[in-house]
Design brief:
494 residues; alpha/beta; Fumarate Reductase Iron-sulfur Protein, Chain B, domain 2; FAD/NAD(P)-binding domain; 3 domains; five-stranded parallel beta sheet
């Protein structure tokens, strides 16, 4: 697709990122998009490669490669190249409910599987996707399209993250009557409070929600199913209930001094900043502040990086990111060939900003906290770290990271943010609906299915599979909607 020689004629060009020291002055998105003509050239780079790994969404060695939504990437790249933006949007929207979200926050599984990337630079698929959806909004193509016919079926969706919104969007398009319940004060779930504004400004979410409301979906906030909203009543009043509450139990760090003041879970830290930004542009002071503090972030993933970027914008004194695992190689190894997901070291925006501000990469590998040290008032003052090494457990045969004696170090610290991931379903929700859980505390269903042990109750997203990507949650939501539709109608055309 695209121009047959496009990948030879044109070099990859990305949207320009505002320089780190400038962009940390605010919490705005910081990429300046290419012009329409330049974007056409980038779409022209899409090859007629024959085997389109970019849209495969398959699993290789336990890792996903290619788009989990099976987006029709070569098709809409070709349509952008030829200037047919409306049809490009139609083909994109056929498989993707929320390209305005994925084009901003997805790690780009499509690009990592791009054939162009085998011996050169991959096609800039994420930016092409973003260009399409922004063109669609600008030219009135992405407006509300309410279903022409309504059924008499009522569905309650519990949770308004990417999975819940995808379920709601799909079932509403079928003509069912959908109500989304969200326990927070605003709709969006992970998209709203788990992802900082620098990656996803919240007016982008509100823009899409406005469309969904006009299409007939009802949203109810401050509605905590299992607490102030009774599960039994929901199951009685609705023909189906979909649980999409996310994986909300953060992994903790169990070390002496854990009760010190100044230790928070990353999700609480990020949520407090975003909520304060939305409520008052940080003037209310109702957020966990990193200003003038020595900060340690425990966890080397995307959430940890988001904490680094946020702390720098607060004006932290120093920032350190601890990672339990060794540093990944800078380039693919022979054991990790294309089109597998590349297991390589990535320096993200937060680390780039730390390097610009403090002069060094904030990450320390194979290290964790051994002890939190507090003063007489219970305030955190420093941490004691310890190096880790990989060893095989003689009893289980599993390889584990274990402390190395004699490697302890002290670091001044007034704020610790734990970004060690999440584990499954919150118990009060599963108990309220009576759904069974797996050993990993995810909602239990048959393999590849979404129906729980309770008739008429389904589950999708991180609550169903465990912590994962936004794009996978959307896939889950779409597939779950098909199963709910078939349950209600006896067949499905979703």
């Amino acid at each position: 697709m695209g121009k047959p020689t496009g990948f030879i004629d044109y070099k990859r060009e990305d949207a320009r990122a505002i320089e780190p020291k400038e962009r940390i002055k605010n919490f705005n998105e910081f990429h300046i998009p290419l012009s329409e003509e330049e974007q056409k050239k980038q779409s022209a780079r899409c090859m007629d490669c024959g085997v389109t790994f970019c849209q495969s969404g398959m699993t290789l060695r336990g890792m996903t490669t290619g788009c989990p939504l099976n987006n029709l990437i070569p098709e809409w790249n070709d349509l952008v190249y030829t200037g047919n933006w409306e049809q490009a949007y139609n083909r994109l929207h056929k498989t993707s409910n929320f390209p305005e979200f994925t084009s901003r926050v997805c790690p780009g599984l499509c690009e990592k599987a791009c054939t162009c990337g085998l011996n050169g630079d991959a096609v800039s698929t994420k930016e092409n996707e973003k260009a399409i959806i922004e063109y669609a909004y600008a030219h009135g193509l992405a407006g509300a399209k309410p279903p022409k016919v309504r059924t008499d079926k009522r569905i309650a969706v519990i949770g308004s993250g990417p999975a819940g919104l995808a379920v709601a969007d799909q079932l509403n398009s079928r003509g069912h009557n959908v109500t989304v319940y969200e326990r927070a004060d605003r709709i969006g779930g992970l998209l709203r409070y788990g992802i900082p504004n620098m990656k996803l400004e919240k007016h982008i979410i509100d823009r899409k929600l406005d469309v969904m409301k006009k299409e007939g979906i009802e949203f109810i906030t401050n509605a905590n199913a299992g607490e102030n909203i009774k599960a039994k009543k929901l199951m009685e009043e609705y023909d189906a209930v979909v649980l999409a509450c996310g994986a909300s139990n953060p992994r903790d760090i169990k070390a002496p001094g854990r009760d010190a003041r100044g230790i928070y879970f990353a999700v609480d830290f990020l949520t407090s900043t975003t909520k304060s930004l939305l409520d008052s542009n940080l003037t209310d002071g109702k957020y966990i502040s990193a200003k003038d503090k020595n900060v340690i972030v425990i966890g080397g993933g995307d959430t940890g990086n988001d904490c680094v970027g946020t702390c720098i914008r607060h004006g932290c004194k120093s920032i350190t990111q601890l990672e339990m695992m060794p540093k990944a190689p800078d380039e693919r190894t022979e054991s990790n060939p294309w089109p597998q997901w590349p297991l390589v070291c990535k320096t993200d925006y937060g680390q780039e900003e730390a390097i610009a501000v403090f002069g060094h990469d904030p990450r320390i590998y194979t290290t964790t906290v051994k002890e939190f040290v507090k003063d007489k008032k219970g305030n955190l003052t420093k941490v004691i770290t310890v190096a880790l090494e990989s060893k095989v457990d003689e009893k289980t045969g599993r390889r584990m990271m274990v402390p190395v004696e004699g490697t302890e170090k002290e670091m001044p610290c007034e704020l610790v943010l734990i970004a060690a991931g999440f584990l499954g379903t919150q118990k009060y929700v599963s108990d309220a609906f009576g759904v069974e859980l797996t050993e990993r505390t995810n909602v239990k269903t048959e393999d590849g299915k979404f129906a729980t042990n309770v008739k008429g109750v389904f589950s999708a997203g991180d609550m169903h599979t465990g912590q994962s990507l936004v794009v996978k949650a959307i896939r889950q939501g779409r597939d779950c909607a098909k199963e709910v539709d078939e349950f209600l109608m006896g067949y499905t055309n979703l």
